[in-house]
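re: ur question from yesterday

yeah so i grabbed the chain u mentioned. its 303 aa long if i counted rite. heres the sequnce exactly as i have it in my notes:
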Amino acid sequence: MKVAQASPDGTRWTVRRVLILVASLAWLAVGHGIDAQEKTFLWKVSKNDRSLYLLGSIHYLRKENFPLHKSIIEAFNASKRLVLEIDLNRVSSDVQKVTLDKAVYRDGQTLQQNVSKETYQLTEQQAAKLGIDMEVMATMKPWFVGLTLVAIKLQLIGLDPNLGVDHYLAERAKRSGKPTGGLETLEFQMRLLDQMSSRDQESFLRGSFAELDLLDTDLEQIVQAWLKGDGNLLETLLLAGMKEHPEVHEKLIVDRNRRWVPQIEKILAQGDGAMVVVGAAHLVGKDGVIEMLKARGYRLEQR
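ran it thru and got these structure tokens back, copy pasting raw so excuse formatting
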């Protein structure tokens, strides 16, 4: 199989290298009327005498965005355990196999056979911009091609998934011996993507094109909005492309929010002072976790 042109660190884009990069990202994975200039994307969730911290994560940052705001570090230090979307400290060492089992056609089908001519041509254009030979992605399923394009773009513009907030806090928890857990498993996330209909997988791929354009034009604005806790702006920036594909938005954002809220309630009821960290896109808007918790009678205070 051919490989693409060299990446910035001098290696070449092979399927194996793409698998490692995409898997490392977890999810590539955003309130209302709040003085964002004085806040972070951290909330204290409480009811009666129980509370926990809920943090919206951004999955890509640069070294200059650290250290994190003292409110986040203080909340992390005060929490007895860390709960992420997936427990990054317990991800199977066989992550490549888990991903490959779901991400690649094994019956002779190809990407070109499973998307429209227009979508395939757009994919070729995006791949060319990133220096990727389409043959590398020939047998990848549409959802995985979308993740691959975004993952490679992030690396090419100098963003490190290992400096994402969730990865940073997971590593900090590991060093300090703080217990970690996950709301989902990597296997669940892969299955969720793989079980989407062919139409939804193509919509997911096309949505990734909007995300690539967003990274070109609004990256610094996204990071600054997150640093300032500006949920309204993040909702506009991060969800605009996905909302053009409502079925995908419902399955990958809203349905998962609905599944997470009872888990967050259970964690809070246990009263052990946890910090829960999920992608920022899951916290904003009327279908976000913040509004769902408010509707259930919880008090939320942005820190």
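noticed a couple things. The chain has a mean pLDDT of 86. also The chain has one domain: 15-302.
anyway ttyl
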